[in-house]
């Protein structure tokens, strides 16, 4: 967009239409601190649909759905790394957390968000690797409990890291997971994997964090708002 060309889009319009957190995520992810960046309606919709709806939203919904299905909504206790994939998930996640901390300390918020989404992507991949649906058929309850616990823990960590940029989304993830203890939502406890006691229960049905947008329709809407500005 260019002010001299008159094709300006205002963040308050995006926030009103698509929510504060969705708008803030796009701007912080795409616009490095103190630098210029390019805005496009297509880019905005793609980030919203793929990053927020597909990656983060689906991870939360799948996790809540499986815990309700397999364990009556109760988050299992931590018993260490039971599956062969557990250890690598923990180690990789902690490495990304350290990078997020470094980037946040130097105001590289876009890089911090990129690292957070690497955790989200890795956690989604972890579901495919461990195949909880197969574990339940094989009656591998201990392994299945470990998968569910690790999914919740990574979502807890993600919610803590997202709080500075997406406060409502952060709180909503924790609410749906039933994690409201102040000690469990502080940055000081973010790298630990053994904090949940097994007394926490997720909500009965996961609620979408973000609703998928029709790319053609919403792109046209944003372009319409850019005209004549």
Question: Mind sketching the topology for me?
Answer:
Elements: H1 11-18, H2 20-30, H3 41-71, H4 84-105, H5 109-130, H6 132-137, H7 141-162, H8 167-177, H9 215-226
Helix pairs in contact: 1-2, 2-5, 3-5, 3-7, 3-9, 4-5, 4-7, 5-7, 7-8
In a nutshell, what does this entry contain?
The chain is mostly helical. The chain has 9 helices and no strands. The chain has helices at residues 11-18, 20-30, 41-71, 84-105, 109-130, 132-137, 141-162, 167-177, 215-226.
User: Counting H and I runs of at least 4 residues, what is the number of helices?
Assistant: 9
Helical amount among residues, as a percent range?
55-70%
Low-confidence stretches: 1-6
Largest sheet, strands/sense/barrel: none
The shape, in one word, is globular
Q: Gyration radius, to the nearest Å?
A: 19 Å
Tally of extended strands? 0
**Strand portion:** under 5%
**Which structural category do the helix and sheet elements fall into?**
mainly alpha
- Mean pLDDT rating: 92
One letter per element, helices H and strands E, the order comes to HHHHHHHHH
Query: Distance N terminus to C terminus?
Result: 11 Å
Word description of this protein:
By secondary structure, the protein is mostly helical. Helix content is 63%, strand content 0%. It has nine helices and no strands. The chain has helices at residues 11-18, 20-30, 41-71, 84-105, 109-130, 132-137, 141-162, 167-177, 215-226. The model is unreliable at 1-6 (pLDDT under 50).
